[in-house]
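batch job 7 of whatever, protein = NADP-dependent oxidoreductase domain-containing protein
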Amino acid sequence: MTFTLPSGATVPVPGFGTGTKWYKSGDPSIDRNVVDAIVSGLKVGYRHIDCAEVYGTEAETGLAIKESGIPRDQIFVTGKILPKIANPRAALEETLKLMQLDYLDLYLIHAPFFDEKSHGISIEKAWEILSELKGEGKIRDIGVSNFSVADLERLKDAKEKVAVNQIEFNPYLQNQTPGIVDYCQKKGIILEAYTPLGPLVPAAKGGPLDPVVNKLAAKYGRDAGQIILKWVIQRGIVPITTSAKVERQKTNLDLDAFTLTSEEVKEIDEAGSKKHFRSYWAHKYIP
Ligand SMILES: NC(=O)C1=CN([C@@H]2O[C@H](COP(=O)(O)OP(=O)(O)OC[C@H]3O[C@@H](n4cnc5c(N)ncnc54)[C@H](O)[C@@H]3O)[C@@H](O)[C@H]2O)C=CC1
Ligand SMILES: O=CCc1c[nH]c2ccccc12
C-alpha cells in the first residue's frame, strides 16, 4: 500500500517516532542515546522520521540523519508546530536550524488546542502562514494532528488542502473523535496513527483483542506488534512507532511478507471495538 501526498511525495511506512520515550522539551543538550536510536532506526531501514518542536529531539534527529550517511532526499522528515504557533515562520526556521535541514517533507499543526486568546493566532491564520511557507519550498506538504472533523471543517475552504491528519489510532481507538476516519478517507486526507501499539501496554493488556492477535501471530509466525501494525496499514493508515531496541525496530519494520485476509482485518475491528483505550488527550475528547 502506498500513501501519496498532494506534492506527489510518497510517505514511507511505517514511520519512526522521536517523541514519547525521548521527550525532553526545554533541554538543549544533545542526548546521545536518542541520536544512536535514530541512527539505528535509519540503518535498519526506516525512511520516515516523525519529530516535533515539543519533543526537544530536533537536534538529535538532524544529527542522526547526518551520521546515518543516508542522503537527505531519501528520508521523509516530519516536524510539528506547537506551542510556538504564534509565529510559524520563526518556529519553522528554528526547527530547520536545529535539524540542520533546508526543508521539511511534512509540517503539522500538532494539535487544535489553541486560539487567538491562548496563543495569539487562530487555526485559520496559522494554516495560511504554513501554506505560504509551503509555497516558498521550505515544506513539501502541510497537515495537522489531533484534529476532529469539526476542526478540519474550519480549513475546508483553504486554498491548500490538508495533506495529513496524525491521530491516535489503534484497535481499541478506531475513532479518535466521531467519524474522523471516514471523513479523512473520503476527503483524501492521509491518516497517520500514533501509538498504534497502545493495546500492548500493560494498562491495556488482557482485553478482547489479545486472543485474536495471538491467534493471527501464531498463524503468520509474527509477533503481536506486527499483526497490529499490519492491521493499521490495511485500514489505509500510516503507523508511527518508537523503539530504541534494534530487534523491535526490525520487527516493527518487517511487515511486507504477510497480508491479513479481509475477514481477519474485520475480526480485529470487531474485537477492538469491544474496549476503549486511549493514551493521549483523554481530557480533551469525549470517550
Ligand atoms: N501527534 C501527537 O500528538 C503524538 C505523536 N506521537 C508520535 O508517534 C510516535 C509513536 O508513538 P508511541 O506512543 O511511541 O507508539 P508505539 O505504538 O510505538 O508505542 C506504544 C507503546 O507500545 C510499546 N511497544 C512498542 N512495540 C511493542 C511491541 N512490539 N510489543 C509490545 N509493546 C510494544 C512501546 O514501548 C510503548 O509503550 C512518537 O514517537 C511520536 O513521534 C506520539 C504521541 C502523540
Ligand atoms: O506528540 C505528543 C503529544 C504532546 C505532548 N505534548 C504536546 C504539546 C503540544 C502538542 C502535542 C503534545
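notes: The mean pLDDT is 97.
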